[in-house]
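INFO batch 0412 | record 1 of 1 | parsing
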Amino acid sequence: MKIKNLFISFTLIFVTGLSNFIIAQNKDSTQSNRYIASLDLLSLSGGGPDIRFEVSLNERSSINMRVFAFEDDSLHATLGILAYRIYPIQGLGNAPKGFYIGPRLYKGAINEISSGNGVWREVVRGIGVGVGTGYQFNFKFGLVVDLGIGFNFSDQVIQFDGDEADEGFAIWPHPNVGLGWKF
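INFO prediction complete | emitting tokens
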């Protein structure tokens, strides 16, 4: 199932990029690309795709949306992030390209069930804010590489089976290595 989802994701990005490349050959070369679809390679190494979509809002900013979902027999994880990116030092009209920084909102949950020496369950869920920064490389033929890190600040609930819920404040880094296509 994981391989199938990965294959479908890469196929969609490839087809979108290829069709965009063909369309771009027939358009005026001064028109800039304003949409990016990508995958986080770090999440792929963990077994599930973190799919991202970025939309340019104006000449110096964009909205970036990310969705991650993973499920197997003992682990269920979800993560959603909505980020506003500011591209402060590029020339006007270059967003989404170059150095970026901006705020983000996220919501995530992890449910882990183990049946080792006794059945136990761990639940972690949180909602919070953060800040993200990085650099996005856009190549003329459509390829996009995004290297960044986000820091999430949240109030989390952690609960082990049979114990009371433990609530607390957490700060955790969220690195990303994105590979995608602009169109």
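INFO post-check: Helices lie at 2-26, 41-45.
INFO record closed
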